[in-house]
Amino acid sequence: MEPILEIDGLTKIYAGGLKALDDVQLTIKRGEIFALLGPNGAGKTTLIGAVCGLVRTNGGTIKAFGQDLTKNWRSARAKIGLVPQELATDMFEEVGRFVAYSRGLFGLPSDPARIEEILRSLSLWDKRKEQIRALSGGMKRRVLIAKALAHEPDLLFLDEPTAGVDVELRRDMWKLIGAMRERGVTIILTTHYIEEAEEMADRVGVIRQGKILMVDDKAAMMARLGRTEAVISLVRPIAELPSSFADYPITLSDDGTELCYRGGDGSGKGKADVAAITKALTLAGIDYDGIDVHESSLEDIFVDLVEHSEGETA
């Protein structure tokens, strides 16, 4: 299947010399949810702006729906939706009229039934006559999502869509994103809430200082980079580890009361190692009274990747 978005060698250097995008290579599959993770200033919003025509780049190419955006901008942009990070809009406009107007911007005819469907799905129907300025921050963000959906895009960018909203609204948006995917919409999501990526994304990309550090299927990334950490509390301190533990990545605490294991590969090997270690402790006559096991989350992997890349560039 042809990719819906292909980015090749994209570079953006601002007037002050800041390189916001550095030779970015990225391909997005049709129908997937792709999460782009990175710290503040990593280049996430700049990358989205480049695809949506809001940022002029210094080099590289962008193809969407098989078309070069520099040559077929208008037809391709009509298939792209954007929910920006900033709440910049006409605060005195009524919700319903604001969302409906967006269809006309892309040359689509009026469709009150479709607008009603979108507003109801976002719990905005009862607010359709209210001015946007009267809404809460979370509801304003819903209005931006409704506006982005009004022209029925095939590719949707969500730039921090749940920033500043409460947990209930965030969960509602997750459900909405899942429903959009079921209708075949491809979604690219940036977020500071890494649990959102862990919950919804098919693939994950990590960006730092304008460079893509890694792109992979979420499950494959977890399996390859995930780790198991375990702390085993001993009943009595020991002076050194028995030789039978030499094959395991274990360290003994300075006071001899804890064994610390960090290993595995995210595929279950770590848990198997911990089980084998506890069995070996029993055979060696070493009593323990507590085990604390932690499996890496996507957030742990993300932090490790970013910190490692910082060390390389320091």
UniProtKB/TrEMBL annotation:
Coiled coil: none annotated. GO terms for molecular function: ATP binding; ATP hydrolysis activity. The keyword Transport applies. Residues 5-234 form the ABC transporter domain. InterPro entries: AAA+_ATPase, ABC_transporter-like_ATP-bd, ABC_transporter-like_CS, ABC_transporter_ATP-binding, P-loop_NTPase. It holds the Pfam family ABC_tran. The keyword ATP-binding applies. Keywords: ATP-binding, Nucleotide-binding, Transport. Gene3D superfamilies: P-loop containing nucleotide triphosphate hydrolases. PROSITE patterns: ABC_TRANSPORTER_1 (PS00211), ABC_TRANSPORTER_2 (PS50893). CDD domains: ABC_DR_subfamily_A (cd03230). It comes from the Bacteria. This is ABC transporter ATP-binding protein.
